[in-house]
Amino acid sequence: MGGSEKRFSNPLEPQLVRLNKNLLISKGDPQYFDKVIRYADKTSPEAHFKMGERAREQGNISRAIFHYQEVMKTSSSPYYYEANRALRDLALQEQADLEEARTELEVATKGKFNRFLRMFLYALILINLILLAALLGSAGEDNSAAASASAAASSLAAGSDSGKPAQGTGSSFSTEAASVRGDASMPVPEKDVPYVMDFPAGVGAEWIESELLREMNRLVQENSRQNRVIYGFVVDGKQSGRTDPLGSSSSGGQAIREELRPGQAYPLDSQASLENAFVAAEYVPQLRSSIQIYYISEGVPQAQALTVAGAQIIRTALQAYAADHDGTYPASLDLLIRSYPDNYLSFLPKEVLTGSSRVSPYYDGGGGWVYIPAADDPGSVLRPNLPAAALAVAQPVSAALSAPANIQLEPVQVYVSKRERRLLLQAGNGTVLASRAGIGRPESPTPGGTYSVLERVLAPAGRAPGVYGAAALGLGSIAVHGTADAASVGAARSLGCVRVDDAEMLALFALVPKGAALHVVASLDEAGVPALKRPVSEHGGELAAAAAALRPAQLSSVNEHVPGKVFHWLG
Questions:
Q1: Rounded to 5, what percent of the chain is helix, strand, coil?
Q2: Does the pLDDT value for residue 22 go beyond 90?
Q3: How sure is the predictor about 446, in pLDDT bands with cuts at 50, 70 and 90?
Q4: Is 423 in contact with 415 (CB distance < 8 Å)?
Q5: In sequence order, which residues have a C-beta less than 8 Å from that of residue 425 and are 6 or more positions away?
Q6: Confidence of residue 27 (pLDDT cuts 50, 70, 90)
Q7: Apex CA 133: angle with CA 361 and CA 67, to 5°?
């Protein structure tokens, strides 16, 4: 009876897909994905996404939302980001439809709403906001979004435009402050006007924050749906240096000033003076329900530069990964941090301004990184999860309030100058970190040219123990590697490789991803790279400080040593 198992086999079975022991079905069946969910896998991301797309085409929006939300329960799925994008599109379309309905009602009644129409409109807005909060909150946020949206809607239903947001202070862009999720495509109220406040020198941060909160709440009560930002200045002339935005030399400006009580915020006429602000408070109802306060001048330039550098380091690794995988970016950034030879990175650099290593599939301004592997623009695949104001102090208020921060794509570049005996690491936005470097002796010079980092190895084994030091970046025939011979760093003593002090090499190793370009040049000037005016310390330290600032609190467990393999770089 050994052949009994095949007695009732279907001759078309090779062309069919087996959903379970008793069900074979063709992929051409219009109900294929419905049956996958029903009989095979109730959580199939592909099936739910396809069902959502079909429901959307048929105009069954509630059914489409259900299926997209089911996809969002599996974050590792390749359909996760597409479903997230579809949910945002549906939410924005719903908002646009309601706005169109409101406009049509205004035209039909010539702007005179009777009580019935007004309550009907408020009911529509209430339903929309609750649906929007529930829809966007299902992507992994807590229930505060729905509560915030419901409270705002209740205020509208009561016929009031005023509202008081939760008061949040301290660290800028805290994740706890985010409520209803926003995106760069969300509509922003027109005519956003920045405000300014003057503070005397020497006052404490607690008093400054309380005054900013008081004034911001006053402005928000005037219109709870309007974006607001207040910039603070020191008025003793040492830190401010700004021109009077109200035009104190004119009678109009003076009259406005006389009407203001001490400590009151007033509108800013010109954007040109914002570069001297030292503190800012912002309220963006599209993104969060709280007031955010952040300090602009104290330590931020360095943090801004390191945040940009961290983004460029990750982007460079992503480009290398895509080049190795038919142009496809990884589904997760974790795939960049694996054991040799797939160690594109040693760790995921943290976003320095907030200290967060969080990775989000969309912008919410809460710190960390936004990663969208399906983005069309390579510069938008990875960007800081910060408002634009976090990376640029002086800019139009509309950008400061609504736009997500982004920076021009500038892959990491390393330059080794044989004349200056220096190694420079460029990581975007003018960020340059320098170290002394040793090069090949006259009879075995370091060959010039542009190389790509092909291998990243800790303590690589060579023809002699320790010949390549603590770490190495393999470039093919040569490498940039560490050395315990301090006298050879800054000299021409190698067999052709580039030598860096062991401590500096470990920091360089952490900052340079696989795939980064390395240029060996005769001199920095000839290569079009401005030579550093500052001296480079014999003991370095710039690379180590940057690596320490970008290193997250918890490191991934990866093996970047290569036991049993002997490398044969020139040495």
A1: 35, 15, 45
A2: no
A3: very high
A4: yes
A5: 412, 413, 414, 432, 433, 434, 435, 508, 511, 512, 543
A6: low
A7: 65
